[in-house]
Amino acid sequence: MLTLHRWFPAARKLTLSRWLLLACTSLALSACGDNASDNASKGTDTASSNGGSTVAATVESTLRLALETAKPGDVITIPAGTHAMSRSLILNTDGVTIRGAGMDQSILSFTNQVDGAEGLLVNASDFLIEDVAVEDTQGDALKINEGKNITIRRVRTEWTGGPSVDNGAYGIYPVQTENTLIEHSVAIAASDAGIYVGQSRNIVVRNNRVAFNVAGIEIENSVGADVYENVAEDNTGGILVFNMPGIPMAGHSTRVYKNQINNNNTKNFGAPGTAVSGVPAGSGIVINSNDKVEIFANALSNNNTANILISSYYTANYAGQREFAEQFDPFPEGIYLYDNEYTGGGTAPDRPELAALVASPVLAELGRLPDVVWDGFVRDNAAPSTANICIRDSGAVMLNADFGNEGATATLNTDPHRCDLPKLAAVQL
Questions:
Q1: How many Å apart are CA 129 and CA 100, to the nearest integer?
Q2: 3-class DSSP assignment, residue 48
Q3: Residues 410, 411, 414, 417, CA torsion sign
Q4: Confidence of residue 24 (pLDDT cuts 50, 70, 90)
Q5: N or C: which end of the chain has fewer CB within 10 A?
Q6: Model confidence pLDDT, tens digit, residues 396-405
């Protein structure tokens, strides 16, 4: 994996000690003192006097200065400690690395944030951030906007008070990016998605842990994503692959594989009117209005609504809350399931219409929702066999909920979907 040091051989390294010296210079302080380095390592304030007044150079102010004055190739190092941040941090320079001592050691705490929509906002390319935590932001924790060649490694975003609608929406949040890698990171208690990648191309999300978010991992209106070897547990929905209307970029070609998707039964705490507020608690994998989605070799267990939900725009709770674009395709097509393992699940559906199906004659013998539930909407009333959903999971049964007819002809007949589809190519960053 390329590092920024290879991209920019002459990279500067800005430790917090050097930030303090920069801060002193920028404030025209007469004497920062020899203790600046020691105080920086402890995350404490450094004060100097000039003309009888005292000015403090805090960790926050020196970090802000380092970001604002960064040049391509800079490596900004955040020392161990919990560092209080009162306002959003912004980086607009390409080719910068932010590196901490570990995602449980170098902590940017926004508990007392008074201004800003994010914790850290990055509007830049060739960006690497690693070994840092961002906690308790008012809005999104880490947002990367319109960048290329983005690496997020061993980053933790968390709202430490647990699930709450008052938490920020997104933990790790690249949007309109290209060539994005998110790995070995942790996202906890986001009120929308722990890890969200939207309107992007060439994405790899691997070896992460997401817990107690509304959506653990969400790929939305993006092209070419590999989501693998993650652990999604105790979210409302484990892994989501969505298309939304009113967005110029339509998503397709996502592979979700070798993930552990367990016990995603947390009550939905999303803000009313948001897309994820319609996700039923107890959802393992949810595909909504997206095409060419390949789901294989996952271990799904004890997701109380269903281990896998496949739906069109028409059954989402947010239907009617956004303008429906004429060019938007609401039907999920090209969905391919194989080699997944299912344990439990489907015993306590979090929607009245789904719970009613459990009590209906079609599911009387099974006594729960099956592992795969499809809303049954098809293009132009086409036959179910043309819906392009193929299932090769051994022993898996799919429920066609027939919500287009209010469940009148719901069926467990999976035979029309015992088919194969061309496999998608791996994402190359």
A1: 8
A2: strand
A3: negative
A4: very low
A5: N
A6: 899 999 988 8
